[in-house]
Each structure stands twice: as C-alpha cells, then as structure tokens.
UniProtKB/TrEMBL annotation:
<comment type="function">
    <text>Catalyzes the transfer of a geranylgeranyl moiety from geranylgeranyl diphosphate to both cysteines of proteins with the C-terminal sequence -XXCC, -XCXC and -CCXX.</text>
</comment>
<comment type="subunit">
    <text>Heterotrimer composed of the alpha subunit RGTA, the beta subunit RGTB and REP; within this trimer, RGTA and RGTB form the catalytic component, while REP mediates peptide substrate binding.</text>
</comment>
<dbReference type="GO" id="GO:0048364">
    <property type="term" value="P:root development"/>
</dbReference>
<dbReference type="GO" id="GO:0046872">
    <property type="term" value="F:metal ion binding"/>
</dbReference>
<keyword id="KW-0637">Prenyltransferase</keyword>
<dbReference type="InterPro" id="IPR008930">
    <property type="entry name" value="Terpenoid_cyclase/PrenylTrfase"/>
</dbReference>
<dbReference type="InterPro" id="IPR001330">
    <property type="entry name" value="Prenyltrans"/>
</dbReference>
<dbReference type="GO" id="GO:0048229">
    <property type="term" value="P:gametophyte development"/>
</dbReference>
<comment type="function">
    <text>Required for male fertility and root tip growth.</text>
</comment>
<keyword id="KW-0808">Transferase</keyword>
<dbReference type="Pfam" id="PF00432">
    <property type="entry name" value="Prenyltrans"/>
</dbReference>
<protein>
    <recommendedName>
        <fullName>Geranylgeranyl transferase type-2 subunit beta</fullName>
        <ecNumber>2.5.1.60</ecNumber>
    </recommendedName>
</protein>
<keyword id="KW-0479">Metal-binding</keyword>
<dbReference type="GO" id="GO:0005968">
    <property type="term" value="C:Rab-protein geranylgeranyltransferase complex"/>
</dbReference>
<dbReference type="InterPro" id="IPR045089">
    <property type="entry name" value="PGGT1B-like"/>
</dbReference>
<dbReference type="InterPro" id="IPR026873">
    <property type="entry name" value="Ptb1"/>
</dbReference>
<keyword id="KW-0677">Repeat</keyword>
Length: 309
C-alpha cells in the first residue's frame, strides 16, 4: 500500500503562504482565514505546527477582527461572518491563545445572529443554514459562552432539519447531505443532544456513502471525494458506528489521492491538490488512527490535545 507522504504535505502547506499570486491563492483570497485554519490544523496533526511563527499568525488573525461588532472577516478588510469567526477562534485555540480575544464581545456577536426559531444567520444579511448553527455552537463552546444563546431552541431547529432517511439538510425539508450531517451531528454532540438521533438509521445512510473504489461520497449517486472522508467519518464516530465502514479501502483511496512528488492531496485520484482536501485526507486518516498522526476531535475539528483544554 502507498504511504502517507507527511514531509511532502508539510512542505506543500508551508509553500502556499509564499506563492501569494497564483490561481489557488487568488481563489482563496476571500476565505483566507478558513484556508489558514485547514492548513495549520493539518500541520498540527502532522506534528509540525512548530514550523510556523505563532506571533505572526496571531497578529494576522487579529487584523481580520472587527472591533466594532466582535466578528471576524475572511481576510483583512473583509466583512465579518460566522464561518470566519469560527476559523479565527479555532486558530487561536490551536496556539492556546484564546486569551488575546475579548470572548464576551465575540460571543455577543455570535449570539446576535440567532433567530427567533433557534436557527442562525451567517451574517447581517441573514442567510440561514445548519452550517451556521454548527459554527455558532462550536465557537461559543470553545469560548465557554454557550449560555449566551438559547441552546434548547438551537437544538430544536437542528432537529427540525432531520429527514426520514435519518440525515439532515441545510434548512427544514432540505436534502440530506454529508457536510450538513457533520454540522448537525457536531452541534448536537457539543450540546449533549445526540439522543435526538436514530443512530442505526443515520449510520446506515452514512456507511452507504462508501463507493466501490473505497472512497466516500456526500449523497447518493455522487462520485467519491476525499472531503467526505472527513464529513462522513467524523459523523459516524460521533454516533458510534464507524466500524460500519471498510477502513482499509478508504485509507487506500485517500493515499491514492496524494501528489507523491510535490505534496498535497486532491479530491479524486490524479486531480489538482488543494489545502482543503489535504486537510480532509490527513484528518480522515487521523480519524482512522493511521500511525504517527495526532488524533483529531470529530466534533470540534481540532486536535484532541487542543480540544481537551
Ligand atoms: C460540503 O461542501 C460541506 C458542507 C456543506 C459542510 C460545511 C461545514 C462548515 C463550513 C462548518 C465548518 C467546518 C469545520 C470542519 C470546522 P460542498 O459545498 O463542497 O459540497 P458538494 O460536494 O455537494 O459540492
Ligand atoms: Zn471535496
């Protein structure tokens, strides 16, 4: 079997920062803080977070902070959004530097995005999605400020997005999708509300995502993609059904999506690599206890030693 090319992946991640004007960097411009979170978490799982200067990262993250409202943008000068606020808080947690934040202010920003029905908008423009419920709950839990929101209503809204197939969608009635399932199960796990889930029914839907080539897809009839190694496996672990997946075949699929020369992992074999799929591949292997990797917490998406504070 192929092996994980850890050193090459570390080099690849460190190189992204340097080539700021290529296409990938350009496409990532508006969500740079998400990219930073994925890249840094991958380095930490590979035991190489020491290759970056924490002060440099923290001072850049804090330049994305909006002091007026308490939220973070995706890059310096960009508008605040829950997706970026979670990444910022996760990055600070990785370096054990939550103390640089005014946790009260950030949590008031997050709590202000909760709607009357318990759902969350992503930002002031109002789009509602269970992704934002996860971002809010994960972020507030890391900040120890879950008491700022109505948790019961938040949980009830997520439960209202549950479908007859056991999965979850982005809003009530929305089609089940593995990414959305991760968000709902993660939020329910963090709030101690997994009793709302039919574990066998959902476990069955999730393990049916494994395709003939060993990889996982995100919905029926779709191609396998490395990112679903994260969305599906983390969900299966949280509901205690991960033994329903053929781990060897999935491990082979992920390893086969590596660029063995220049590092990085792609979504499918022989496609172009990117930092997201490099994280999803390495984190997926970590969830399957691949040797030499730090374990990652399936709900917080942070290394266990970080999430264990
Ligand atoms: C599928 O994406 C993924 C999702 C819908 C979940 C996204 C979750 C977050 C952004 C929350 C933060 C996550 C973590 C781990 C901290 P896609 O649009 O690529 O789906 P597609 O394959 O159907 O195109
Ligand atoms: Zn993908």
């Amino acid at each position: 079997m192929d092996e994980l090319e850890s050193d090459k992946h570390v080099k690849y991640i460190l190189s992204i920062e340097k080539k700021k004007d290529d296409v990938e960097a350009l496409l990532m411009e508006h969500l740079r803080i998400n990219g930073a979170y994925w890249g840094l978490t991958t380095l930490d799982i590979l035991h190489k977070i020491s290759a970056v200067d924490p002060e440099e990262v923290i001072s850049w993250v804090m330049k994305c902070y909006h002091e007026d409202c308490g939220g973070f943008g995706g890059n310096i000068g960009h508008d605040p959004h829950l997706l970026y606020t979670l990444s910022a808080v996760q990055i600070l947690a990785l370096f054990d530097r939550i103390d640089v934040l005014d946790a009260e202010k950030v949590s008031i920003y997050v709590a202000g995005l909760q709607n009357e029905d318990g759902s969350f908008s992503g930002d002031m423009w109002g789009e509602i999605d269970t992704r934002f419920s996860y971002c809010a709950i994960c972020c507030l839990s890391i900040l120890h400020c879950l008491n700022k929101i109505n948790v019961e209503k938040a949980v009830n809204y997520i439960v209202s997005c549950k479908n007859l197939d056991g999965g979850f969608g982005c809003t009530p009635g929305g089609e089940s999708h593995a990414g959305q399932i991760f968000c709902c199960i993660g939020a329910l796990a963090i709030t101690g509300s997994l009793h709302h889930v039919d574990r066998d029914l959902l476990g069955w839907w999730l393990c049916e995502r494994q395709c003939k080539n060993g990889g996982l897809n995100g919905r029926p009839e779709k191609d396998a993609d490395v990112c679903y190694s994260w969305w599906v496996l983390s969900s299966l672990i949280m509901i205690d059904r991960v033994h329903w997946i053929d781990k060897d075949k999935l491990t082979r699929f992920i390893l086969n999506c590596q660029d063995k020369e220049n590092g990085g992992i792609s979504d499918k074999p022989n496609y172009a690599v990117d930092v997201f799929h490099t994280y999803f591949g390495v984190a997926g292997l970590s969830l399957m206890e691949y040797p030499g990797l730090k374990s990652i917490d399936p709900a917080y998406a942070l290394p266990v030693d970080v999430a264990d504070w």
